[in-house]
Design brief:
heterodimer, A: alpha+beta, six-stranded antiparallel beta sheet, two-stranded antiparallel ribbon, 4 helices, about 30% strand, elongated, B: about 625 residues, alpha/beta, two-stranded antiparallel sheet
């Protein structure tokens, strides 16, 4: 784990906006988050993909079981999502995307809930 | 259950209230149906129980009790109005309903979520039993639940029930009797925190310790398999439209034989009543005024029943929530909500249940916008009017009328969307979309008997609500169009031309002329404010259609309409232009005082209701005039 929820990210502490995984990786960030690594006797710039990583639920493959890391969105809405069962540590999976690419269907605690993309993006999973 | 052994109970007092509480889709309303043997809405769509249902338990289950079915609660955080109401009752803050005991309905396939909600009930410290539903679905989800172990761990009696067959209901009441007005033993639910993260941990721990749940296989694959098809990228929308088209096709085709039957029966009744004494004013009043007037509307009852039946079927099977998911994207673009789909669809039957169905929409702004456009949905009360006008317009094949009708229905949806989109963009600029987070219930094979019973309950309620105003309006109309002011006798039977209706109609005729209507059509339009379909029966009355005619009433009315002329110019009234003008008027106009009253009550202010009445009726009149004048300018008579 590079950025557990309650630790400041290196970008944030440097006063920079956190890069979205999408922009860093050609495959849209589905394989993880990237960090630079120093390789001995090599001055070139190396990128390494690290797993497990934290990304929004919208970037998770279908039917892949993931663990909720934290919720990050409007307070009231996130409180309701928590109350509906999206609590940190819980295993959830995206079972379906609706034909228009929004909403998506999420399995949580035995229930199927339809979430809009913008809502699912608040759910950060690892 | 172990509590069955103690039947000694102080008999519950008269106003002892047992509240049915649970999350949406827990089978709560179906259980209500089973407990009371009454007719209640049993639906699979989240939040369909829109108001409190009251009833008394069946005598065969021991001392009759008052049972109140509360709306399902997803979450007490940022609740919708119906969730708010349920939470108020549960917490004992409601002024009218004070629960003495609870039946907590828990979906056996979703114990964690449902028991976490149960914490809210447990904390009240009132006698509680748990009704464990969806036990038959456990196999599909690859689990088994031991009710005895669960009830020992919770300290609350847990009774597996199948409300759809009534199995376990007796035991449920026995368990409730066994409590004797107190808590059973512990009540582990009371310990559950109100803070969700902690609460879920506690419930998980509780379930783990109880050993009540055993996992045997993979989760519900049937529902996922159906969803994969129903929400498929390419098949999803074709399936959705196929469902909607079948819905409307069934309404029009399946209803026909029943409609013919009812039409024949009313025609026969009216004719035989008038023939008893053809010269008696009273008999003519009963035959031509009351029976024929009610008959003209009763004809559409089969269609309404079929619509209610199919809607209930869709709700019960679980498809309706998928439909709402499919259209959430376009609807939220218009400023509406995925859940607006159900009120809008109900609006095609009747705006009144649709306004109630809008209570399931959590955000006030989206609820307001949904209710705002509901009058535009082509309700079934417009159907008789369109049927009559289209028959008059297209005297040819029925398929032409069918296609035009379909076009009218689709346009009503499109124009409703347009109005919603414009309203949202002009008047609700600073909008924050609300949360969707909508539960998709597991698919279930619908049970015919509860669906039929509920269809009958909804249909007969509709008939009662619509029947009385129609009866009154028919009677009053016949009277004012057959009686008039006669010098000397004051009020006496007069021919139509000198009746009160004629006098009233002639006063408003200048307003009606631009849309190509004369005073008789005006009387029809005014009477339609009681209910749109009254237009048909009042037309039959003001145009003096003789029900003793051998032909059926509609044919008689059509014949009369084709020959009707303006009294002064002698020109035909019902020309293509004026008929199209009337269709346009009915398309937009909010001609339904019941809808206005319901919206006022729902929003607790005249603002929205009054605005709707003025705006839509004004728009209807303006567009009707514009249409008629434009058609005439282009040479259509």
């Amino acid at each position: 784990m590079i950025f557990p929820g309650n630790q400041a990210s290196p970008w944030k502490s440097a006063g920079l906006p956190a890069p979205s995984p999408k922009r860093l990786l050609p495959d849209g960030g589905s394989s993880g988050i990237v960090r630079t690594v120093k390789v001995e006797n090599d001055s070139r710039f190396h990128l390494q993909v690290v797993d497990p990583v934290i990304r929004p639920l919208t970037a998770v493959a279908l039917n892949k079981s993931v663990r909720i890391e934290r919720l990050d969105g409007p307070h009231q809405d996130c409180a309701r999502l928590l109350d509906l069962g999206f609590t940190p540590g819980e295993e959830i999976s995206v079972t379906q995307w609706a034909p228009l690419g929004d909403p998506l269907v999420v399995r949580v605690r035995g229930a199927l809930l339809a979430l809009r993309k913008r809502e699912a993006a608040w759910i950060l999973v690892e | 259950m172990s509590t069955e052994t103690e039947p000694t109970t102080p008999s519950p007092s008269k106003d002892h209230v047992v509240c049915l509480v649970g999350m949406p889709n827990s089978g709560k309303t179906t259980l209500m149906n089973a407990l009371t043997g009454g007719n209640f809405k049993t639906a699979n769509y989240a939040g369909v129980t829109v108001s409190l249902l009251r009833g008394r338990s069946k005598p065969e289950y021991g001392t009759p009790r008052n049972i109140v079915d509360l709306p399902g609660v997803h979450s007490s955080v940022a609740p919708s109005p119906e969730e708010e109401l349920a939470v108020e009752v549960i917490e004992g803050r409601h002024s009218k309903v004070k629960p003495d005991a609870f039946i907590l309905v828990v979906d056996a396939t979703q114990l964690e979520r449902h028991l976490k909600f149960g914490g809210l009930v447990g904390r009240q410290g009132k006698p509680t039993v748990i009704a464990l539903t969806m036990v038959d679905l456990l196999d599909r989800t690859g689990q088994s639940v031991n009710a005895l172990k669960l009830s020992n761990a919770l300290g609350i009696p847990v009774v597996p029930v199948d409300p759809r067959t009534g199995r376990g209901v007796k035991e449920l009441f026995a368990a409730l009797d066994g409590l004797g007005g107190t808590l059973w033993m512990g009540n582990a639910l009371a310990e559950v925190s109100s803070e969700p993260v902690v609460a879920f941990k506690q419930v998980q721990e509780l379930l783990r310790r109880s050993g009540a749940v055993t996992r045997t296989a993979q989760p519900d694959s049937l529902t996922s398999r159906i969803d994969r098809f129903v929400l498929h990228r390419y098949f999803g929308f074709p399936v959705f439209f196929l469902v909607l088209i079948s819905l409307f096709a069934a309404i029009f085709w399946l209803g026909q034989p029943f409609m013919d039957l009812i039409e024949g029966a009313f025609g026969f009744a009216a004719a035989s009543v008038t023939s008893i004494a053809p010269d008696s004013v009273l008999m003519r009043f009963l035959g031509d005024g009351v029976i024929a007037g009610v008959g003209a509307v009763a004809v559409f009852f089969p269609q309404i029943m079929i619509l209610f039946f199919l809607m209930t079927l869709l709700e019960d099977s679980g498809y309706l929530a998928r439909g709402a998911t499919l259209v959430d994207r376009p609807l939220s673009y218009l400023g509406l909500h995925g859940r607006s789909f159900v009120p809008m669809l109900s609006g095609f039957a009747c705006a009144i249940p649709a306004v109630f169905a809008a209570r399931a929409i959590p955000a006030r702004r989206e609820r307001l916008l949904t209710i705002w456009i509901l009058p535009l949905m082509s309700c079934s009360a417009r159907l008789p009017v369109y049927a009559l006008l289209l028959a008059a317009l297209l005297s040819g094949a029925a398929w032409q009328a069918g296609i035009t009708l379909a076009a009218i229905y689709i346009s009503s949806l499109l124009i409703g969307s347009l109005v919603a989109g414009l309203t949202a963009r002009i008047f609700m600029k600073h909008r924050q979309p609300s949360l969707l987070a909508m539960e998709l219930p597991a698919y279930r094979v619908p049970r015919w008997w509860p669906i039929l019973r509920m269809t009958w309950a909804r249909g007969s309620a509709y008939l009662k609500r619509a029947g009385v105003p129609i009866l009154i309006v028919s009677a009053v109309l016949w009277l004012i169009s057959n009686f008039g002011y006669v010098p000397g006798a004051l009020i006496a039977p007069t021919p139509m031309e000198r009746s009160f209706a004629s006098e009233l109609g002639q006063k408003i005729e200048p307003v009606l002329r631009p849309m190509g209507a004369d005073w008789r059509v005006g009387v029809g339009l005014i009477s339609a404010f009681a209910a749109r379909e009254v237009f048909v029966s009042s037309m039959a009355i003001v145009f003096h259609v003789d029900s003793a005619d051998e032909q059926t009433q509609q044919e008689g009315l059509l014949k009369t309409m084709r020959t009707a002329t303006f009294a002064d110019t002698g020109q035909k009234i019902f020309t293509p232009a004026s008929i199209i003008g009337l269709i346009v008027f009915f398309f937009f106009s909010l001609q339904c005082f019941s809808t206005v009253a319901v919206v006022r009550k729902e929003m607790n202010s005249w603002k929205l209701a009054g605005l709707q009445l003025v705006f839509y009726t004004g728009l209807g009149y303006a567009l009707a005039v514009a249409t008629v004048q434009a058609l005439r300018a282009f040479g259509v008579a």
